Amino acid sequence: xxxxxxxxxxxxxxxxxxxxxxxxxxxxxxxxxxxxxxxxxxxxxxxxxxxxxxxxxxxxxxxxxxxxxxxxxxxxxxxxxxxxxxxxxxxxxxxxxxxxxxxxxxxxxxxxxxxxxxxxxxxxxxxxxxxxxxxxxxxxxxxxxxxxxxxxxxxxxxxxxxxxxxxxxxxxxxxxxxx
Length: 179
Ligand SMILES: [Zn+2]
What we know:
Layout: E1 2-4, E2 11-12, H1 32-76, E3 78-80, E4 90-92, H2 97-140, E5 144-145, H3 151-178
Antiparallel strand pairs: 1-2, 1-5, 3-4
Helix pairs in contact: 1-2
This protein binds zinc ion.
């Protein structure tokens, strides 16, 4: 559980005492009319997160394009070995321009892809945290909020739930047929 400071809206592990950031005394319980402005301020933060998610996705897509171009050039850097006449032999030409482009594309593209993915996932989670917290603050009328499950936990939960339900349905079908 973490508690938002009502002044600076930073989250802390403590739920009472002074806020470590601004010193305001933490007081989680909210009056009805206090909820709206706090929720609005928190919601505004998601705009920044949305931009960062877009940046991450752009890096991801551009990076992936570079990786694909790199792979194509990797294929192109195999040159026909002219010296062997009996059979066709292709050798990787390490000193060719194609090989240089391939290396650049795969390394720079790979890094951009990984960075973009991590960046997008990280800020998507931050956005989810705000949405989750706002929902809890509204419901509980308190600035103390629980931990937001990651999207992977949500997926895992959803998948295992679906499997359980399918198993249960199959069992029921079997029981009905046996009757
Ligand atoms: Zn504070």
